[in-house]
Amino acid sequence: MLIREATARDWPAIWPFFHEIVAAGETFTYPPDLGREQGRDWWLLAPTNRTVVAVDEAGTVLGTAKMNNNHMGNGAHIASASYMVDPAHSGRGVGRALCQYSLDWARAAGFRRMQFNAVVETNAHAVRLYRSLGFEVLGTLPEGFRHPTEGYVGLHIMHRAL
């Protein structure tokens, strides 16, 4: 697996699984009816932030991550990131590789911590992955997310030092 900078040419490969994940409404706070162009604008970040794709040896996009400042001004030393793995390629370590890549990027860019603002508590796979990489739950906003089948569930704020 290779992780490289994403370009606008990657969007046609990202969009199908991005749309599937967002439309499911189970893990992201994006509107479930988010359109292709607005999704692209929200996901493909301009420098100094970064968006990457994980690709296999044939060049197939397996997943993607975006990495950015979590805050501005006097809080600009805190990074954040989001990850999406094509469900057709889940269970192959793509999410872990993307998360580790984002931690390395943030450390190299001089960030002191990484913070995730809205980890849906029912997203057990993500919570387990983040914990295994050293993230802690700082707190949970009760009923902060309206899950399509579970109803109102909590949103974790997670962080780790870099």
From TrEMBL:
InterPro entries recorded: Acyl_CoA_acyltransferase (IPR016181), GNAT_dom (IPR000182), Mito_N-acetyltransferase (IPR052742)
Top-level taxon in the UniProt lineage: Bacteria
CDD domains registered for this protein in UniProt: NAT_SF (cd04301)
Pfam families per UniProt: Acetyltransf_1 (PF00583)
Ranges of residues in domain N-acetyltransferase: 1-159
PROSITE patterns documented for this protein: GNAT (PS51186)
The protein's name in its UniProt record: GNAT family N-acetyltransferase
Organism of this sequence: Streptomyces cuspidosporus
Lineage: Bacteria, Bacillati, Actinomycetota, Actinomycetes, Kitasatosporales
